[in-house]
Every structure is written in C-alpha cells, then in structure tokens.
Amino acid sequence: MQWKGLIDTHAHLDFKAFDKDRAQVISKVREAGFVGIINVGTDRDTSFQTVDLVKEHPGFIWGAVGVHPHEAITVTGDVLREIEALSKEDGIVAIGEIGLDFHYNHSPRAIQERVFRAQLRLARSLGLPVIIHSREAEKETLAILKEENGRDIGGVMHCFTGSAMMAKECLAMGFFLGLGGVLTFPKAQNLRDIADYVPLENILL
C-alpha cells in the first residue's frame, strides 16, 4: 500500500474516552486532511475493537493488534492465538503495542519479556512490523530485539525516550523513532540532540 498525506500513526480510538464522540473525532480528522489513522491495540479486547474500527472505516482506519507490557500478565496461549488470527484480518498492518515497561511493572518482568518475544516472533512469521513501547528497559529491549532478529521485523520505537546509543542501535536495525511531547520538556535536551541527527525519514511524530 502507498499513502500520500498525513497519517496518525498511533491512535487509541477504542478507548472509553472516545465513547461519546468517536464518530465526530474521526470526521474531524478526515476534515483536517488526514488520509489515514492507525489504531493500536493494547490487549485482547482492544485488539478486537481495533479490528471492528477497521471494518467500520475501510481504507481510512488501519490497525495494529497486540498486548502492551502492562497487560502481559493476561496473555495465555489462547490470547496469542487470538492475536494471530486478528493479525490476518484485512487492514491490520502491524503488531503492537508490545514491549517492556520496567517503570510501572504492572506485569512481572519475566512475563513481559516472554510475551514480548512471542509477539516479535509472531510479527516476523507474518511479515508485519511492530510498534514497541520501551520504558526504563533499554538494555533488555535491545537485547531481545537482537536475539529475535529485529532487523528482519522492523517497526517503530513508540514515544522514544531512550539514549543516543539506543537510538543508533534502533536505526541500525531499520526502526523508526516516534518522537512525542516529551521532546519539548526543559530537561529533554538529550532527546532534542537525538532528533538533530536522526534522518527525517526515520522520524514519526
């Protein structure tokens, strides 16, 4: 597929916060000139809801399905099989949001790592890119990506807040860096320095 125009690459329109005005929000995005939205699942249920949104807005909303590290503890073999089945639906373009979050540790670290690996392997088997959440888990994220041949998968490091070393490692593996509002924080000079040298074609906002 080839898109020409603005795309929201990371939305969560399935969240309850949009229950009262979801249709209006989608209409406003269209009116603003966007050509697409990628809605990103964070667990089993939101992945199903993402597929529903894709079916309701074909050609405009696309989807990613997966389980966020916060919810890794909910993942069973059945859940992984459901995610795999959903990933084969029309309009699903990535596996995500997956990764590691050692800041909140809502799920035990060992479980986060196991589920992260499982979803990376799924993405590789399907030829889909990944959307990765990594917070205070830089060393572990990079190690797992290398061990699981992340270069063969590709994707985006969502809301990147890592070090210059991590940025270079991710770029070497062919990943995009998602830069968000943290870039504007007074103490985020490190991120601004990183943004200075990352090729524009490797940046998502």
Walk me through this protein's architecture.
The protein is an alpha/beta fold. 39% of the residues lie in helices and 20% in strands. It contains seven helices and eight strands, in the order E-H-E-H-E-H-E-H-E-H-E-H-E-H-E. The protein has helices at 22-31, 44-56, 77-87, 109-126, 138-147, 164-172, 189-197; strands at 7-11, 36-40, 61-65, 92-101, 130-135, 155-158, 175-178, 203-204. An eight-stranded parallel beta sheet has the order 1-2-3-4-5-6-7-8. Helix 2 (44-56) runs parallel beside helix 3. The longest helix is centred in the middle third of the chain and has 18 residues, at 109-126. The protein is globular. The protein starts with 6 loop residues before the first strand and ends with a strand. The model has no long low-confidence stretch (mean pLDDT 96).
Keyphrases for this structure?
alpha/beta, 7 helices, eight-stranded parallel beta sheet
Mean pLDDT score, rounded? 96
Largest sheet, if any?
Answer: 8 strands, parallel
Distance between the termini: 21 Å
What fraction of residues sit in β-strands? 15-25%
DSSP helix count? 7
How would you sum up the global shape? globular
Main β-sheet, spatial strand arrangement? 1-2-3-4-5-6-7-8
| SSE topology string | EHEHEHEHEHEHEHE
Can you give the helix content as a percent range? 25-40%
Decide which structural class fits the backbone.
alpha/beta
| pLDDT < 50 runs, ≥5 residues | none
CA radius of gyration: 16 Å
Total number of strands: 8
